[in-house]
Amino acid sequence: MALKNTNPTKTQAWQNLTKHFNEIKGISIKELCKDVNRKEGFSIQLDDLLVDFSKNRITKETLDLLLQLAKEVDLKDAIEKQFTGAVINVTEGREVLHTALRSTKEDAILVNNKNIKPQIQTALRKIRSFSNKVINGKWKGFTGKSITDIVNIGIGGSDLGPDMIVESLQYYKNHLNTHFVSNIDGDHVSEIIKKLNPETTLFVIVSKTFTTQETITNAETIKDWFLKSATVFDIPKHFVAVSTNLNAVNNFGIDKANVFTMWNWVGGRFSLWSAVGLSISLSVGFDNYRELLNGAEEMDIHYRNTDFDKNIPVILALLSIWYNNFYEAETEAVLPYSQYLKKLPDYLQQAIMESNGKGVDRNGDKINYQTGTIVWGSTGTNMQHAFMQLVHQGTKLIPADFIGYKESLYGLTDHHKKLMANYYGQIDALAFGKTKEEVHLELKTAGEEDKIATLLPFKVFEGNRPSNAILFEKLTPKSLGKLIALYEHKIFTQGILWNIYSYDQFGVELGKELAKKLLDKQ
Ligand code: F6P
Fold first, then answer.
1. Which domains does the chain have, with CATH numbers?
2. Which of 155, 230, 386, 415 has its CA 20 to 30 A from that of 353?
């Protein structure tokens, strides 16, 4: 049941891709886009989502060869193994089953010969009933008042996912104020505490291991602060925990009834679909949370069942490999044209870089080809006035994902028209640029002929900079779930193609160990 083990650079497809790359590396997106049928052949529609990848430096042959690579490493087999609960996180001896958390199908998924579906349903019911009680005011604090504020205490996957989703779904938010404390920097927790009333605040301590220094330190500080106004007997009304480590939770003083379990077969950075998403459900209500899961499930079904040439996560993963491993592009930009998605790049940095930042293959051998891409980004249009100069005219090739929505949520059509004009304007500017001739004519028409000799080279845009347009109808919990699952599957696909293990993260340990040693010495 283990994942197959294929060095991608030793495949026939890789040899063919290398040859093909040398033949077409200078290819022009502008020339390619003269084909009026290109958009149709290089885009995929999945219900409310349209992914247009026509503005890439690829031909039909490039795509065929990349698809051949996916076939040679037997991606299909790997996808089935992930969905059906094989122990594909080999180095940690674990299954990888975040997809099971959003599955509404009846089919059993076995872990240690036990179907995990019933426990997932029980956990969801507990999230629903708890969220309802807090939202409708029936859950009371130690002085009999209803809850007004939620504080999520966690870090990494126990913070970034819930924080990003709560921010992204602000439009759907209820009356509760939601706060996130993560950093060990005491100023972070102090600033949050300043805003809180202990009588009306609920603390959700989220830690898979319940040993993470930042989370436990922040939780202890908050507990001390709380106990200045209340007694230990009031803790059950104000502290709940999400963890796999029930003993540690118990030692912290949290009531058994207030523990939301999670499981080792869910990786931290893929855990917002489990009770780690409790603060999401509290913030937007359980029905919206379920919609988020439903959207993710739709993407799961698409990823698992669709032929690779029409499979969105697979195509985006292959394009990323094309630029990373052949064009030697080191980074990728994620550019959402929605202010709601401002935390998406941070979230994706953990998901992508903690997963695929690996230098050793599945044999344990040092890798001599490039793996994990560096991902970064910010929202449009703000970033157009910040870093886009470098993306347009700098010396680096930076493939970009433009994420957009056909409709805005508040319906300010004038704003939205302008926003989307910028979205398409940036994509076209990157792809097609502006030639010397065009600049020449432009200056001449403006009556600035005297400036042509000095200004012309600075105003030229080479273009030929690739991007994908990821366009949804509207930002809803469901479309957001679909978007996040898309990136999750892209990550896994790339890990398979690079022959690495995407679901461990030993690289974060050494720094932690050294910090601990330094602390012990003090
Ligand atoms: O930084 C490493 C890491 O293990 C992440 O993978 C994880 O999301 C984060 O720490 C938090 O871990 P925990 O939920 O166990 O506190």
1. 8-92+306-432+465-508 (3.40.50.10490), 110-288 (3.40.50.10490), 433-464 (no CATH)
2. 386
Question: Is 253 strand, coil or helix?
Answer: coil
Element (H, E) at 383: none
The 10s digit of each residue's pLDDT in 400-409 is: 999 999 999 9
pLDDT at 366 over 80: yes
CA angle 184, 190, 192 (to 5 degrees): 100
> Both tokens of residue 369?
């080809």
Residues in contact with 262: Cβ distance below 8 Å, sequence separation at least 6, in sequence order? 208, 242, 243, 244, 271, 274, 275, 276
Give the Cβ contact number of residue 339 at 10 Å. 14
Per-residue pLDDT, 522: 85
pLDDT of amino acid 450 = 95
The rounded mean pLDDT for the chain is 97
- Give long-range contacts, CB 8 A cutoff, 24+ apart: 220-228: 221/186, 221/189, 222/151, 222/153, 222/181, 222/189, 222/193, 223/252, 223/253, 225/193, 225/198, 226/198, 228/198
Cα 511 to middle of ligand 1, angstroms:
13
Token match 């069942």: residue? 305
**Ligand 1 close to Cβ of residue 208 (< 6 A):** yes
Contacts of residue 311, defined as CB under 8 A and 6 or more positions apart, other chains included, come to: 44, 302, 303
Looking from the CA of residue 155, the nearest atom of ligand 1 is 11
Q: Using the predicted structure, report yes or no on whether residue 371 has a pLDDT greater than 80.
A: yes
Cβ atoms 198, 230 nearer than 8 A: yes
Q: What are the tokens at 30?
A: 């502008």
Question: Could you tell me the distance, in angstroms and rounded to a whole number, from the CA of residue 514 to the centre of ligand 1?
Answer: 17
Q: Is the CB of 392 under 6 A from ligand 1?
A: no
Residues designated as active site: 354, 385, 512
Return the CA Rg of the chain: 25
What contacts 435, CB < 8 A, 6 or more positions away?
460
Does ligand 1 have an atom closer than 6 angstroms to the CB of 182? Answer: no
| Mean pLDDT across 458-487 | 98
